[in-house]
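#lab-general

N.A. 3:47 PM
ok so I finally got the sequence cleaned up, no stray characters, all 464 residues accounted for. can someone with queue access submit it? mine expired

B.Y. 3:52 PM
send it over

N.A. 3:53 PM
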Amino acid sequence: MSRFPLDPVRLDRRQLLKFGLGASAAGLLPLGSLQASTLNTNARIVILGGGAAGMAMANRLSRRLEGARISLVEPSEIHHYQPGWTLVASGVWQSGKTMRPNADFVPAGVEWVRQPAVGIDAEQRRVSLADARVLEYDYLVVATGLQLNYHLIDGMSPDLVGTHGIGSVYASIEGATRTRDAIDAWLAKGGGKGLFTAAPTPVKCAGAPIKMTFTTLSRIRDTGRRDAFQLDYLTPGAGMFSQPWINDFLKQRFDDEGINRRHHYRLSAIDPGAQKAEFTFVGPASEFTSHHELRQEEFGREGEMTEVVDYDFIHVVPPMSAPDFVRESDLIAREGPFRGEWLDVDIHTMQHNRYPEVFGIGDVIGAPINKTAASVKAQAPVVEANLLAQMQEQPLPARHNGYTSCPLITDIGKAMLVEFGYDNDMDFLPSFPFIDPRDESWAAWVMKDRMLQPAYYAVLEGQA
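B.Y. 4:20 PM
back already:
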């Protein structure tokens, strides 16, 4: 009997294979403009970043533009399938499954610049590289991804992941592996306190901290010693997820599972040697004083208090922002909620709000949601269509509806496929009729575990 209000569609393994696993990766995703005509141009186009967003644009634009000089700025030789890092940290995947050479994806005819970008001069239309070279452009696609700001947590460094009971799935693929090892060591102790944190900023894969909580709980249950482990989830906000139904579901599920929810708590410092974490509480005084022997009048001038918490394991989620060289450029947002932190784009057309020759895609943009690989899948055809229109001085024809997707793991072997957008935060935007977005199912788990990776590579290749 389902605990959810909708009757789920139950599938056995044979049915799921019939519906999905036998299909090609490209068949999982809507086709973009693969049949569209090409444009002859001698324009210089620079794409900053060779992750999911940048590589998808390199492949799409190389097919659509004849004669263009396209440069892809990406220093890494390895492409990382980051959606798989939670599975590595949870002990489900081996790290090698998440890595492929970037050479597999860079299209012929595109100049691969193996240097980091260090500056953007938007007025002069120039990109500075770490080796002192300068790339001039007529059009710029900013697909840099984001920056992990571990340094904003006093005492924290990504080098600490895997030591002193510290995990962080975001640090790197090596960090994901070391996070798994830190969880293994905690489980081997037979009990203790685990802290799972969330960040005070937008983050990539906002569901990852929740997934890590659920997969760790699943592993704890397997030890047969659930009562010996305490799990606390500390988040700086009043909610847990941007989609209201999922937010309510998660709060109830955490309560049912005995995971202590502590809202308005931001991780501010860590003492690795002592295995202590300092949290800053910023919220209603009543919520803090209800858990502490403290009079409300002693709460503090700004409504802030700090609390030091012992831990045996802690999963750290750092604050995030656009890379520093983007933040220091004229392309950064100057006002509004993304001021000084994220790329300033129209969230529907993906065009920069002040520099029409610049487009943004992926995690770097300032948008209320959208920092997922699924968002890139939806944004890429919009950027392609609108960039080509801009090159021809035509009105921009395409609009992004904010589509994003989170395969929300709720147990090892169960997940929910949550899909929604800007104007649908009260509703779902399901892509697969055989998966109920309100149901925890093996089908959604198989999507995450087996099917989304080949679909992701199809996006990189510009085929979806």
